[in-house]
Amino acid sequence: MCTNSLGQPIGPIVTNWTEPSHPTALELDGQYCKLEKLNPHCHAQDLFNANSESKEGEIWTYLPYGPFAKFESYQRWVEEMAAKTDPLFYAVIDKKTQKALGVASYLRITPVAGSIEVGHINFSPALQKTIIASEAMYLMMRYIFVELGYRRYEWKCNALNEGSKEAAKRLGFSYEGTFRQAGIVKGRNRDTAWFSILDTEWPVMEQAFSRWLAPDNFTGDGNQITSLSDIRNKIKQEQAA
């Protein structure tokens, strides 16, 4: 434990770290997908079509906007979001079809603290629980940790959104707590669950994603052989041995 001259406990000095820049990448490229900076002309129609497969509008329940009944209203929303730098939105593109199937963004971008959040995640039914969905999250993590040098990557969601909480845990985020009455969304109270990954945890995460995404970890029909969580736990055990 570090202490000052008064004997009070203080945090360790942060060394070998430089304040990162704001994310600016126009594209993040992977094996199965690529992320392109959101563009209303290139992506709005594909996204609207993909989102329309959510017949009951369940993908919009925990988001502060939507559902959008008409393409024109969705296109206006895409135009508004695409013009922002925080949140900075990306469209998730399936490399096989070249269709945009979902969006995700960086937000609460705080370079001085080395902290950045991933959010506004809205994956259409065709994207949910797929290799592409996981790889998209990996590409966003890799960019901020490896290329930009952030220290902290956050995930926050409605505390009632069990799907989002499970996704965060599966991807390797650690639960930090719940902020009660953190906001009001669509007229209803929102308690917010907080999760994070730190730069010191990233090397294990990167190894786990690399092994999980390897072609030999999937059967011919695309089913995983070993789960991401199991691979991550195995790597931790190997390092502890």
From TrEMBL:
<dbReference type="GO" id="GO:1990189">
    <property type="term" value="F:protein N-terminal-serine acetyltransferase activity"/>
</dbReference>
<dbReference type="InterPro" id="IPR051908">
    <property type="entry name" value="Ribosomal_N-acetyltransferase"/>
</dbReference>
<dbReference type="InterPro" id="IPR016181">
    <property type="entry name" value="Acyl_CoA_acyltransferase"/>
</dbReference>
<dbReference type="Pfam" id="PF13302">
    <property type="entry name" value="Acetyltransf_3"/>
</dbReference>
<dbReference type="GO" id="GO:0008999">
    <property type="term" value="F:protein-N-terminal-alanine acetyltransferase activity"/>
</dbReference>
<dbReference type="InterPro" id="IPR000182">
    <property type="entry name" value="GNAT_dom"/>
</dbReference>
<feature type="domain" description="N-acetyltransferase">
    <location>
        <begin position="33"/>
        <end position="191"/>
    </location>
</feature>
<dbReference type="GO" id="GO:0005737">
    <property type="term" value="C:cytoplasm"/>
</dbReference>
<protein>
    <recommendedName>
        <fullName>N-acetyltransferase domain-containing protein</fullName>
    </recommendedName>
</protein>
